[in-house]
Amino acid sequence: METDDRKNSKTGVIKRVFLPLVLVLGLILVTLSLMKQYSVRQDIDKDSDVSVGASLPDFEVQEFGKGPVTYSKIKAKVVLVNFWATWCDACVNEMPSIVQLRDSYKQRGFDVIAVNVDEEPEAVLPSAIRSLKIDFPVYVDPEGKLGDIFDLHAVPFTVILDKNRKVLFVENGERNWNSSEVRSNLEQWLGI
After folding, report:
1. What values do phi and psi take at 13, rounded to 5?
2. Kind and range of the H or E element at 114?
């Protein structure tokens, strides 16, 4: 009988202590997984200078592995500026549609400025560029200056600009950039 009481006592301790602990740890793991899967999105338009119709100052971007490029020197009529990171699942998910969109419209005056915000781009970008089949220059923002101009709070964050740096479109979060809606708007902005 004493043995049964000890078994019941141990079982009670397990149920009272370890089961809640396992549940809490499980909840923490699920939360962390969701946070990684869906990058933290804030209300970026709130208190942001980046809104449709606004004009941005001329800015410089640092091409990965090369030198700086000034926006006013880019010859495109319309440019999609996409802030992304390799650790951001939503960013990685939308990148193939950005590649497809650029491939479809690059001869018609459209280009992409993909700004990577990874802390150590030299360690992660070469393999990401290969695996995502990115066939256009990728830029980095090591000092966060470009992120400041665009009031960047979270990724992915995308702004479409005309050649005069007027904001045509702002998107917070993941999107299919090769959708018929985007293509229709792009053709209108390009005048085709």
Report:
1. -65, -45
2. strand 110-116
Does 110 share its domain with 149?
Answer: yes
Peptide bond into 142 cis (omega under 30): no
Phi and psi dihedrals of 189, rounded to 5?
-65, -35
Contact 112, 61 (CB under 8 A): no
In a domain, 49, yes or no: no
Task: Give the model confidence (pLDDT) of 128-163 as tens digits.
Answer: 999 999 999 999 998 888 999 999 999 999 999 999
Are 68 and 135 in the same domain? yes
The model carries a pTM of 0.74
Average pLDDT of the chain is: 85
The yes-or-no verdict on residue 31 having pLDDT over 80 is: no
Cα–Cα distances (Å) from 38 to 31, 90, 92, 164, in that order, read 11, 6, 11, 33
